[in-house]
Write a structure and sequence with these properties.
The protein has about 170 residues and is an alpha+beta fold. It has one domain. It is built from five helices and five strands, in the order βββββααααα. It has a five-stranded antiparallel β-sheet, with helices on one face. Strand 2 and strand 3 form a beta hairpin. It is elongated and about 60 Å long. The N and C termini lie far apart (about 40 Å).
C-alpha cells in the first residue's frame, strides 16, 4: 500500500488538547506545503479570532499522523471557506508563499459563494417572502430579490445562525 501526499489547498483537521485537560478542540487549517510524513498548514483561526497570515503562529508544521481528517476545500462548509478566504485576501494571500494553495482556495471560495447564494434562494419560499414584506410579490420582485440576496448580509447572517446552532449542538 502506498501513501500519496495530500495536495496544497486541502483542508486538514487536527485535535488540539486544551490546557485545562478538557476534550480536544478541532482546529481546521489548509495545507500550503505537503510532504510524505509532514505538512505545513495555515490555520486561519475562528470567526471571533481570525489569525493573521503574517503571524508565524498561524503557520504550523504537522506530522501527517496528527491529522484527524482531510477534506477538499470545496467540500468544506461554504461559509467557513468564504469567510477565511475573505480574511486572507484582506491580509494578503501572498504572505503564505503558496500560489497553488491560494489558487485552489480562491476557486473553492468562488464555488462556496455560489453554493451559499443558490442555497439561500431555495431556503426562502415565496409565501415566506410575502409574509415578511406584507404584500404579494410579482415575478419581477422575485427576480430582483434573487439578484439582491447574495449581495446582502443574508448569507452571512445564515452562516452566523448555523454557527450558533453548531455551538449549541457541541455543548
Amino acid at each position: 500500500m502506498s501513501y500519496v501526499a495530500p495536495s496544497p489547498g486541502t483542508a486538514v483537521e487536527i485535535r488540539r488538547t486544551q490546557s485545562n485537560g478538557a476534550p480536544g478542540v478541532i482546529d481546521r487549517g489548509v495545507i500550503i506545503h505537503p510532504g510524505m510524513t509532514w505538512l505545513v498548514a495555515y490555520f486561519p483561526g475562528s470567526p471571533e479570532r481570525p489569525a493573521d497570515a503574517a503571524d508565524p503562529a498561524s503557520i504550523r508544521v504537522l506530522r501527517t499522523a496528527d491529522v484527524t481528517a482531510y477534506r477538499d476545500l470545496v467540500d468544506c462548509e461554504p461559509a467557513w471557506v468564504v469567510r477565511t478566504w475573505s480574511h486572507l485576501v484582506q491580509a494578503g494571500p501572498g504572505l503564505l508563499q503558496a500560489p497553488e494553495a491560494i489558487r485552489i482556495w480562491e476557486i473553492a471560495a468562488t464555488l462556496a459563494r455560489h453554493r451559499l447564494e443558490s442555497d439561500v434562494a431555495s431556503l426562502i419560499t415565496r409565501e415566506q417572502l410575502e409574509c415578511w414584506t406584507g404584500r404579494p410579490l410579482t415575478d419581477d420582485d422575485l427576480s430582483r430579490l434573487d439578484a439582491a440576496i447574495p449581495n446582502s448580509s443574508i448569507p452571512e447572517a445564515i452562516g452566523t445562525i448555523v454557527e450558533g446552532m453548531d455551538r449549541e449542538g457541541a455543548q
